[in-house]
Write a structure and sequence with these properties.
Two copies of one chain form a homodimer. By secondary structure, chain A is of the alpha/beta class. In chain A, about 35% of the residues lie in helices and about 15% in strands. The first copy, chain A, contains seven helices and ten strands. Chain A has a four-stranded mixed β-sheet with strand order 3-4-5-6, covered by helices on one side. Chain A has a four-stranded antiparallel β-sheet with strand order 7-8-10-9, covered by helices on one side. Chain A has a two-stranded parallel sheet with strand order 1-2. At the A-B interface, α1, α6 and β9 of A face α1, α6 and β9 of B.
Chain lengths: ~300, ~300
């Protein structure tokens, strides 16, 4: 059970683990991209009526495109009522918990059975640095993945072998990815990391207000996170919203501008269509070295590259 | 279908992918740790008689403990006869293909449907660097793992989007691990890498001959690869092979010496029991900076640490 706005990794995981993608049911999201708990309840009833046994809900804290945060408390209520595992994909938005000002976006995450969090995203730890946090205290991962390969995980060591965690992960040989997070945390401190998050939100606010004042820029919606989604409407399309080919022509703008910025070497900004919406740009304001001058450059550069369209 | 000497990752994968470990059948290995093709044939018949449909054989080129190379050509014949997928786990031994002198150990690998190879092992590329090589030319990985997430893998780009390989792998955000191999290969050349392999084999030979000349050292077997497996028999146990508690006491030697070397900070050598064999040391001669002096030090240090046992 997951919203259609969730990351494609959930579907991929279902296929990979042998559950099959038919086992994945999509829950409706509202116009801001948040899962609708009433529809979740409805999908569970439908699945049960078909004889299925729904067992897991994957909510998202920070969707990839819109940066939406699902209403975790309401979803936790549904999970509790139906005895379902409550997973939160906070890969993108989990770092917001470090900010006293913004952590309310994740209210209810403390009720999750499992949380996925990628410090390599918003916190800018080096790729890859992913954490899976579990409520479980029974060594679940070891019970799932452990194979007690005696040629690798000797039990007759001189120290407490429960410190050897290698057997509980999926991989065998792997990097010590958590060290990057630990070092960064020691170097920056909790306050330093909080400042990064708060600055990202503040800079996002600056960019959004700039977009509102400039002709030819149109927000997809007011962001609640650091994903700024907007269209650049070039001069030839301004005020032509009523033309039948408007959406089709608008769709071609982002790919064209992307080609130009890549060939110039000046910027890299992602774009995508989304549901019924034509291709729009998605600026992620995450890099802690970004300044207002970078935001100004970004908008000026789009104007410059798109002035003849 | 795999030999009992194979890496535990095969069992783990079967569990993880939802096939279940009961689907994994173990084939007998000979006293050198090589899969016995006649027993593979027998296990396939047994499985078919039970109504199962065997579909994959996983052979190993370079087992973890003994460094054994399965007879790939004979196994390929069996796979061909039964229409089974022929996978070679060459994670450890695959790099030997770079040596004209030693690549015969992998004769038959050219008939594999898939090969796993870890340049981060014998070639010492930085962790992690793993390759999965496929005979398939139909973009199988994309067909298995691709989800065409339109918000990530746009099709309306200005270049050939088949160059975007992200959708065919299991992960989404991941490091460009292949770059390490490419850079190393450019820097060292094929001949440089070949020299590393050949040196590792030569230094292994030196260590083995030294072990044979020293009192208290006993080879588990003549190695065919760079895994040197041996017992250190301390003074108090020499010539006591007939005592009923010999094996039990010998088993305690490696853990005790391991504790001593770790606490001294002088060496790190793995040990393990293996089938009916008591704990023995396993030295892997892989690091290209190793010299004969290091081999001498290793044996001297074991003698020093174990002289009172």
């Amino acid at each position: 059970m997951l919203s259609w706005q969730c990351h494609y990794s959930i579907n991929k995981g279902a296929a990979f683990l042998g559950l099959g993608t038919d086992s994945v049911r999509v829950v409706k999201a509202d116009e801001r991209g948040k899962m609708i708990p009433e529809d979740l309840e409805r999908q569970i009833s439908l699945a049960e009526a078909e004889g299925s046994v729904p067992f897991l809900v994957s909510a998202t804290s920070g969707t990839t495109v819109l940066g939406a945060f699902d209403p975790l408390d309401a979803i936790a209520d549904v999970c509790q009522r139906h005895g379902m595992w409550f997973h939160v994909d906070a890969a993108w938005g989990g770092s917001v918990l470090l900010s006293q000002t913004h952590k309310h976006l994740l209210d209810g995450i403390q009720r999750a059975d499992s949380v996925a969090w990628n410090p390599h995203k918003l916190l800018a730890a080096g790729l890859q640095c992913s954490a899976l946090l579990l409520r479980d205290t029974s060594n679940l991962l070891k019970r799932c993945h452990g194979f007690q390969a005696s040629y690798l995980f000797q039990q007759d060591k001189f120290y407490d072998v429960t410190l050897d965690t290698g057997d509980k992960v999926v991989q065998c040989g792997r990097r010590v990815d958590c060290l990057k997070l630990w070092l960064m945390w020691k170097a920056q401190g909790g306050q330093g990391l909080e400042r990064r998050i708060d600055q990202a939100f503040a800079l996002t606010r600056y960019l959004v207000e700039e977009i509102k004042t400039r002709e030819g820029f149109e927000l997809v919606m007011e962001p609640e996170f650091v994903n700024v989604c907007f269209w650049f409407v070039p001069p030839s399309l301004r005020g032509k919203q009523e033309r039948p080919d408007y959406k089709e022509r608008l769709s071609q703008v982002a790919p064209m501008l992307k080609e130009r910025m890549v060939k110039e070497g000046s910027m890299m900004i992602g774009y995508q269509p989304h549901g019924p919406r034509a291709n729009f740009f998605r600026v992620i304001v995450a890099n802690p070295t970004l300044t207002r001058a970078d935001m100004d450059f970004l908008l000026n550069e789009l104007e410059r590259l798109g002035q003849d369209l």
